[in-house]
Amino acid sequence: MNRREFIKIGAAAAIGAGVASAIEIPILENTINNDHSQVNQLQSQITQGQQVFLTLNPTEQPIVEALAEAIIPTDSTGPGAKEAQVIYFIDHMLAGNYGKGGNMFLQGPFVTPQTGALTVMGAVYPNTTKTAITYSSGTIAPRLQAGTAYQYAFSPREFWRRGLVFLETYSKAAKGGNFETLSSADQTSILQDLFNNSSSNTALQNAFQGPKAGEFFNEVYDMVIAGFFSDPIHGGNKGLVGWELIAFNGNYWGDDIGLGARKLMVAGTPTRLKPASIGDLQKSGKAL
C-alpha cells in the first residue's frame, strides 16, 4: 500500500468516527487491498454514514449473520438480529481492543481441566510433612464465562475465525451443508448440539479443536445479545429495535417534557418513554 492510499484510508476512518469507536488502520487490511476502487468505495460508504466491515471477510459475513438471525429471528414480536445489524456490532468489536485480546493474558502456560487423579508436587505444605498433594477427582472445570476458562494463545478474533471454520465443518457433517444454507430448524439443531457439547458426538468433537463447541456457542450467544441491546454507537441495535422490544428508554428520561427520573419514579401512572441513544442526545444538544 502506497502512502497516498494510506492517507485516503486514514481520512475515511476519521470521517467515519461515528461508525465505529475502535476503528484502526491495520485492521482494514482484511477489507482493503491495493485496488483503488475498493479504497474509494469504503471512503464513500463511511462518508455517507453507512456501516462497513472492518474485520469479517466475505466468507465469514454470511455465517455470522445466519448465526445472529438463528438466535434472534424476526417474528411477530418485531425485528430480529438482521434488522438490528448485529453483525456490524460483532465485526466492530473484533476489529478493536476486544478482538485483539487487549485485556487478556495470551501467553502461557495454558492449563486445561484435568480428569482423574492429579498429583501436585511442591514445598512442604502448611501443618503437614507432605511435599505432594493428590486431588483424586482432578481439577475443577471453570464455567464458560470465568476468566480462567480461556486457555488459548490466540486472540478473540482468531477464536471467531477458527470457530466459524469448525462450525461449517460440523454443519456439513451433521446436516450436509454450510450453516448459512440450512433451514431454520437445522440451524437450531446445530446450535443445540454446540450448546450440549456432548462428548459422545464424535463429529462435533472432531470438528471443534479449540475453541470447543460449547465455548464457541457461549461466545456467539453473548455477542449477539450484546449487539441487539447495546447502544447503536457500538454498531448494532439499528433503529433502537432492541430497546423498543423491551420498552427500554435508554438515556432519555423526559426532562424536556417536564418529567425526569424523580417524577417518573413517584408518578401514579406509568409513562412509556421513547428510547434515545447517545447519538440522539448529542444531536439534540441534550447529551450528558
Q: Largest sheet, if any? A: 2 strands, antiparallel
Helix content: 40-55%
Give the overall average pLDDT: 80
For the CA atoms, what is the radius of gyration?
A: 23 Å
Number of strands: 2
> What separation lies between the terminal Cα atoms?
41 Å
Count of spatially separate domains: 4
Determine the number of helices (DSSP H or I, runs of at least 4 residues): 11
Which spans have pLDDT < 50 for at least 5 consecutive residues? 1-36
Strand order, largest beta sheet: 1-2
**Which H/E pattern describes the elements?**
HHHHEEHHHHHHH
Q: Structural class of the secondary structure composition?
A: mainly alpha
Question: Quick one: overall form?
Answer: globular
Beta content comes to: under 5%
Description:
- The chain is built from 11 helices and 2 strands; from the N terminus they run ααααββααααααα.
- The chain is mainly α and 288 residues long.
- It has 4 domains: 52 residues, no CATH class; 150 residues, no CATH class; 34 residues, no CATH class; 36 residues, no CATH class.
- A two-stranded antiparallel ribbon has the order 1-2.
- Helix 1 packs parallel to helix 2, helix 4 crosses helix 8 and helix 6 packs across helix 8.
- The N terminus is likely disordered.
